[in-house]
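hiii so um. not sure if this is the right channel but i have a protein structure encoded as tokens and i wanna go backwards to a sequence. like what aa goes where. can anyone help
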């Protein structure tokens, strides 16, 4: 279990990463989804369901970051749900690509990064906030 000061530093860092990641995701996804034709053309062979998932997930990233900042248990659970949903979307994207669907290599890189970031945030949040130990202590 982390000390209070150590716990605060990790919560602060995770929160800022989650919020910044969310705001960037909303900005970038929104530019392609709601921008002009130039933005869509420059995005190349984007996969619409992945783009929509990431755009919507960006809002969840911000909310999770706020929950982690406030050290709320629901923030940890939301981070875990984001990690799971991202992995599921990545798996469906894999089926899309192996079925011959068009895609950009940067989507593979971006989804790998998103998966790693949210797995790391979930793991650290779970450990630092003590959700795992409080779950065992419940009657």
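sure thing!! here u go:
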């Amino acid at each position: 279990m982390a000390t209070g000061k150590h716990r605060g530093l990790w919560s602060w860092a995770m929160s800022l990463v989650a919020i910044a990641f969310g705001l960037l995701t909303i900005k970038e996804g929104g530019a392609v989804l709601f921008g002009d034709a130039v933005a869509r053309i420059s995005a190349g062979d984007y996969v619409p369901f992945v783009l929509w998932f990431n755009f919507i997930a960006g809002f969840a990233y911000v909310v999770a970051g706020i929950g982690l900042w406030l050290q709320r248990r629901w923030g940890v659970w939301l981070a875990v749900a984001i990690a799971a949903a991202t992995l599921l979307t990545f798996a469906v994207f894999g089926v899309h690509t192996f079925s011959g669907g068009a895609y950009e290599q940067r989507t593979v890189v971006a989804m790998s990064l998103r998966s790693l970031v949210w797995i790391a945030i979930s793991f650290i949040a779970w450990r630092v906030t003590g959700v795992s130990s409080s779950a065992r202590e419940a009657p």
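oh and The chain has six helices and no strands.
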